[in-house]
Amino acid sequence: MSYSKVPKSRLGPLNIGSADIGTAGLPASILSAGSATSGQALIFNGTAYVPTSVPSFTTFVDAEIPSGTKNSTNVTYTLAGTPTPASSLQLYVGGLLMSPGSVGDYTITDATITMAVAPGANDAIYAYYRI
User: Fold this and answer.
1) 8 pLDDT exceeds 70?
2) Quick one: 129 exposed, middle or buried, by C-beta within 10 A (0-12, 13-18, 19+)?
3) Does residue 31 register a pLDDT over 50?
4) Longest alpha-carbon distance in the chain
5) Where are the domains of the chain?
6) What is the pLDDT, as a whole number, of residue 41?
7) 9-13, 82-86, 104-108, 114-118: which has the minimum mean pLDDT?
8) Assign residue 90 a region: left if phi > 0, alpha if psi is -120 to 50, beta otherwise?
9) For the residues 71-78, what does the mean pLDDT come to?
């Protein structure tokens, strides 16, 4: 294998052997692929760089207070967002972590929480989840 020195003063695209090296050391084929749009990245598929959708990032919701009346009789509360997945919801009532499911402390459908037992008027309710 042979190496050739490139002067530091050399700026712009370089051609080393059969590889075209573009700005910042990226192959020129990346720099010329202008068809990627917002939310896409150029991914090498083995022969070429192609625009590929990038999955959105997970958002975490911390210490949300669900809407609903706390009066020792209301069992239905609503979150601002829908937990995705539903199992990501951690619900605290009065400082205690509630158990999900039909035999647990609450169920969740979309953004609606149905409690098995109505929280008291002074119970703090906090929800933590991913959307």
Assistant:
1) no
2) buried
3) no
4) 81
5) 14-53, 60-130
6) 78
7) 9-13
8) beta
9) 97
Instruction: Give CA–CA dist 114/75, Å, rounded.
Output: 5
Residue by residue, DSSP assigns the chain as: -------TT--S-EEETTEEE-GGG-BHHHHH-----TTEEEEE-SSSEEEEEPPPPP-EEEEE--BS--SSS--EEE-SS--SSGGG-EEEETTEEPPBSTTSSEEEETTEEEESSPPPTT--EEEEEE-
Can you give the length of the chain in residues? 131
Position 26 confidence tier, pLDDT thresholds 50, 70, 90: low
Q: Compare 81 and 49 and report the one with higher pLDDT.
A: 81
Which two tokens mark 9? Answer: 């003063």
Q: Per the structure block, which two tokens stand in for 14?
A: 């370089």
